[in-house]
């Protein structure tokens, strides 16, 4: 079925029953009058039609739902495993009886609703399968109020209503009440630090300290003292006793971020602590008992590191008692729109801007971006947009240039109207305080690139006037800042910067593009232009 308006869908459905009455019965009229929520789904599992009852249940219009994957429309707890459509698919014949399951869905208003999902095959006249139908019975209508489950629609300061994140949120309250070790994995910027702090704040240790240590930020010689402490005179410069982070976290939580960067000798000491809860400060002959819950996080593949001999297998087993994996933002459906709406409100209020929304053209670019830096990159992009926007809505000229180059949208294009925040971008639902991911800025640090931005969510700074933050055109012949007049044109300086970025990235073009603040396609085009693609 082709994309289109509600009228287009109705026309596509066409007459359904003929010969029973004087006139044929229109399919849309029949389906909309059915009081049970009903969806028609294509063989590719994209929603082709929602009747009025389904629109009311999902809080989603037919236009918005059409052609979206059904998992993004219903956000069903079965989408991550046990989908009844899988059972229908495995049947050797399309005439299999409908399959029913009880589950929860999350509607567009982020309300969790218990339902009974019934799925079956739609067949062509020759009996071949062309799609599916799905009905959803609202079980709240059949359960007493006191028996209805209350599920969290977020956790702490975290946001998200995709099936993947709802599954995480459902597990967190119970895990928070234990002292088991927790390992959080996921790409940079997905919110691992935020999850650990939310677990601590919901636990019985919430009144105790939450101490965070970045295992990759300090050299081994300093990291051991930082973690375990030292006695006065333990080494040159140890002029006084130092308690160490373990003792500072007593009766609380110690969060080891980037635990994959922990040197092997310190992995042994950490394993010893996990076994007997005793630490041995440098220079001390006596152990110290510490009551600490250990949480750890990493973006690395620890199992591969174990195979390579860079991480202890026994330590992995001790840390991996409870494991949470945070999916990248690109796999979280319309959570992107939720975060865009949330951060627009946050930064508009912070900077005193009267922003009413995002233009459809800018929204299209923002929703299509892959966000390799995940929520942290999205937050930085929105902060940049709010900073530079002097109008009532964010439009294409307010977006970082690398997003426009990546999408092919002209930066001077008209937005074509304004969508209010929460109407097109996001759901307008009230977000938990501070939602999303907080933390340091993301992206590769363009070390050695004079005047370059370290934020992949921001265009490169330091270009010539009128460049809007880009590196400019090599045809301009503008002298590069910091290079004597006549010694180098802007084109020559740009070529040198590309070479420096490639050297620092060891030839990895993706990392070089990120350091320069460009899309990969922009870097490849300029490399060909300057003869650097060989």
UniProtKB/TrEMBL annotation:
<feature type="domain" description="Sigma-54 factor interaction">
    <location>
        <begin position="158"/>
        <end position="387"/>
    </location>
</feature>
<dbReference type="GO" id="GO:0006355">
    <property type="term" value="P:regulation of DNA-templated transcription"/>
</dbReference>
<keyword id="KW-0547">Nucleotide-binding</keyword>
<dbReference type="InterPro" id="IPR003593">
    <property type="entry name" value="AAA+_ATPase"/>
</dbReference>
<dbReference type="GO" id="GO:0005524">
    <property type="term" value="F:ATP binding"/>
</dbReference>
<dbReference type="InterPro" id="IPR002197">
    <property type="entry name" value="HTH_Fis"/>
</dbReference>
<dbReference type="InterPro" id="IPR002078">
    <property type="entry name" value="Sigma_54_int"/>
</dbReference>
<dbReference type="Pfam" id="PF25601">
    <property type="entry name" value="AAA_lid_14"/>
</dbReference>
<dbReference type="Pfam" id="PF02954">
    <property type="entry name" value="HTH_8"/>
</dbReference>
<dbReference type="InterPro" id="IPR013656">
    <property type="entry name" value="PAS_4"/>
</dbReference>
<dbReference type="GO" id="GO:0043565">
    <property type="term" value="F:sequence-specific DNA binding"/>
</dbReference>
<dbReference type="InterPro" id="IPR058031">
    <property type="entry name" value="AAA_lid_NorR"/>
</dbReference>
<dbReference type="InterPro" id="IPR025662">
    <property type="entry name" value="Sigma_54_int_dom_ATP-bd_1"/>
</dbReference>
<keyword id="KW-0804">Transcription</keyword>
<dbReference type="Pfam" id="PF00158">
    <property type="entry name" value="Sigma54_activat"/>
</dbReference>
<dbReference type="InterPro" id="IPR027417">
    <property type="entry name" value="P-loop_NTPase"/>
</dbReference>
<keyword id="KW-0067">ATP-binding</keyword>
<dbReference type="Pfam" id="PF08448">
    <property type="entry name" value="PAS_4"/>
</dbReference>
<dbReference type="InterPro" id="IPR009057">
    <property type="entry name" value="Homeodomain-like_sf"/>
</dbReference>
<dbReference type="InterPro" id="IPR025944">
    <property type="entry name" value="Sigma_54_int_dom_CS"/>
</dbReference>
<protein>
    <submittedName>
        <fullName>Sigma54 specific transcriptional regulator, Fis family</fullName>
    </submittedName>
</protein>
<dbReference type="InterPro" id="IPR035965">
    <property type="entry name" value="PAS-like_dom_sf"/>
</dbReference>
<feature type="region of interest" description="Disordered">
    <location>
        <begin position="426"/>
        <end position="484"/>
    </location>
</feature>
<keyword id="KW-0805">Transcription regulation</keyword>
């Amino acid at each position: 079925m082709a994309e289109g308006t509600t009228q287009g869908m109705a026309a596509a459905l066409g007459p359904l029953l003929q010969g029973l009455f004087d006139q044929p019965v229109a399919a849309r009229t029949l389906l909309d009058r059915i009081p049970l929520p009903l969806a028609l789904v294509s063989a590719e599992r994209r929603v082709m039609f929602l009747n009025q009852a389904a629109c009311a249940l999902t809080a989603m219009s037919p236009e918005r739902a059409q052609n979206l994957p059904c998992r993004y429309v219903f956000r069903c707890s079965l989408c991550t495993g046990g989908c009844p459509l899988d059972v229908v698919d495995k049947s050797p014949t399309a005439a299999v009886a409908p399959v029913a399951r009880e589950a929860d869905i999350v509607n567009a208003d982020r309300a969790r609703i218990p339902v009974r999902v019934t799925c079956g095959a739609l067949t062509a006249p020759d009996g071949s399968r062309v799609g599916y139908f799905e009905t959803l019975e609202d079980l709240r209508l059949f359960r007493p109020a006191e028996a209805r489950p209350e599920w969290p629609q977020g956790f702490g300061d975290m946001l998200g209503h995709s099936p993947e994140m709802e599954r995480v949120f459902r597990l967190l309250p119970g895990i928070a009440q234990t002292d088991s070790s927790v390992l959080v994995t996921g790409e940079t910027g997905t919110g691992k630090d935020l999850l650990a702090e939310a677990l601590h704040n919901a636990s019985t240790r919430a009144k105790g300290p939450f101490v965070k240590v970045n295992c990759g930020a300090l050299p081994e010689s300093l990291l051991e003292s930082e973690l375990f402490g030292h006695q006065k005179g333990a080494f040159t410069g140890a002029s006084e006793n130092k308690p160490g982070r373990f003792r500072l976290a007593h009766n609380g939580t110690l969060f080891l971020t980037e635990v994959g960067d922990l040197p092997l000798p310190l992995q042994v000491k950490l394993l010893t602590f996990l076994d007997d809860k005793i630490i041995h400060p440098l220079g001390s002959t006596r152990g110290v008992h510490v009551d600490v819950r250990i949480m750890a996080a990493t973006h690395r593949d620890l199992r591969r590191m174990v195979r390579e001999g860079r991480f202890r297998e026994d330590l992995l087993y001790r840390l991996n008692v409870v494991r949470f994996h945070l999916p990248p933002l690109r796999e979280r459906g319309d959570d992107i729109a939720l975060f865009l709406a949330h951060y627009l409100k946050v930064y508009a209020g912070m900077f005193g801007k009267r922003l009413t929304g995002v233009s459809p053209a800018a929204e299209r670019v923002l929703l299509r971006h892959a966000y390799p830096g995940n929520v942290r990159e999205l937050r930085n992009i929105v902060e940049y947009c709010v900073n530079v926007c002097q109008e009532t809505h964010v439009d294409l000229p307010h977006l970082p240039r690398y997003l426009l180059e990546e999408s092919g949208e002209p930066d001077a294009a008209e937005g074509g109207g304004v969508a209010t925040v929460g109407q097109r971008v996001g759901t307008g639902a009230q977000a938990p305080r501070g939602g999303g991911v907080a933390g340091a800025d993301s992206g590769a640090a363009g070390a050695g690139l004079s005047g370059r931005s370290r934020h992949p969510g921001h265009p490169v700074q330091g270009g010539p006037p009128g460049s809007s933050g880009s590196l400019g055109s090599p045809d301009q012949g503008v002298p590069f800042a910091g290079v004597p007049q006549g010694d180098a044109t802007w084109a020559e300086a740009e070529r040198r910067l590309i070479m420096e970025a490639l050297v620092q990235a060891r030839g990895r073009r993706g990392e070089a593009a990120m350091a320069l603040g460009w899309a990969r396609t922009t870097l490849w085009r300029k490399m060909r232009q300057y003869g650097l693609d060989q």
